[in-house]
UniProtKB/TrEMBL annotation:
The organism of origin for this protein: Neogobius melanostomus (round goby)
Protein name as catalogued: Ribosomal RNA-processing protein 43
InterPro entries, sorted: ExoRNase_PH_dom1, ExoRNase_PH_dom2, ExoRNase_PH_dom2_sf, Exosome_comp_Rrp42_subfam, PNPase/RNase_PH_dom_sf, Ribosomal_Su5_D2-typ_SF, Rrp43
Biological process terms in GO annotation: exonucleolytic trimming to generate mature 3'-end of 5.8S rRNA from tricistronic rRNA transcript (SSU-rRNA, 5.8S rRNA, LSU-rRNA); nuclear mRNA surveillance; nuclear polyadenylation-dependent rRNA catabolic process; rRNA catabolic process; TRAMP-dependent tRNA surveillance pathway; U1 snRNA 3'-end processing; U4 snRNA 3'-end processing; U5 snRNA 3'-end processing
Lineage of source species: Eukaryota, Metazoa, Chordata, Craniata, Vertebrata
Molecular function as annotated in GO: mRNA 3'-UTR AU-rich region binding
Every Exoribonuclease phosphorolytic domain range: 6-106, 138-200
Protein origin, superkingdom: Eukaryota
Compartmental location: Cytoplasm; Nucleus, Nucleolus
Main location: cytoplasm
Length: 222
């Protein structure tokens, strides 16, 4: 599957990235400092399967899934992270996680925070700023299941409509299992599940390497 990433695609955001995964496209923008959870938007413009109005079940489930992934790690700042799907052709969770990770890696204007030794309260220095430090790099890999035995990687929207189950596995650079998302459907054997986890670990290294390469090329003066 073709994968491309365009960091810093929203000039008014503190951090942003646009990700194309196959025919699916997701754009992510982050704004500081607010409290809240990541928000995934699946508007009608990305696919005719979505309707105008309040967020549907799939969008709400995707938002909560992304929140569960990043809340495993301790952050100094809490950011609003809005992800909008521009083109939907399946595999949207993977694209959202990649777009979020790339967007966070472009956040470069966080105020410095220190702890006052007398009051034990945090103090913010708006004159001194630094980049957001990313200590873990979770990456999702989605799989489609046919009749409990056939597993495919990166299912398209058409393939998703034929699946008996879907599975998303999130791992980090130390091959730690961060999250497994399986919204019902047919069962999957332990052997097949382990195979998916192993594939996800390999893909995590590939995606992280590509993100770091793209971010470095953007930061490096020509």
């Amino acid at each position: 599957m073709v994968f491309t990433i365009f960091p810093g695609s929203i000039s008014t955001a503190d951090g942003s990235a646009l990700v194309k995964l196959g025919n699916s496209t997701v754009i992510c923008g982050t704004v500081k400092p607010h409290s809240g959870v990541p928000n995934v938007d699946l508007p009608p413009l990305c696919s005719s399967r979505f309707r105008p109005g309040p967020p549907g079940e799939q969008a709400q489930a995707a938002s909560q899934f992304i929140a569960d992934v990043i809340e495993r790690y301790c952050l100094c700042w809490v950011l609003y992270c809005d992800m909008m799907c521009i083109d939907y052709d399946g595999n949207v969770l993977d694209a959202c996680i990649i777009a979020l990770l790339a967007a966070l890696k472009t956040v470069s204007k966080l105020p410095d925070v220190t702890i006052n030794t007398e009051t034990c309260l945090p103090e913010v220095n708006l004159e001194k700023r630094h980049e957001l430090q990313i200590h873990r790099h979770p990456v999702g890999s989605s799989f489609g299941v046919f009749d409990k035995s056939i597993v495919i990687v990166d299912p398209t929207a058409e393939e998703e409509s034929l699946l008996t189950a879907q599975l998303t596995v999130v791992t980090d650079e130390e091959e730690r299992l961060c999250s497994v998302h399986k919204p019902g459907g047919s069962s999957l054997s332990g052997e097949k599940l382990q195979e998916c986890i192993n594939r996800a670990a390999v893909r995590q290294r590939e995606i992280q390497k590509l993100i770091d390469k793209v971010i470095k090329s953007v930061d490096t003066p020509q």
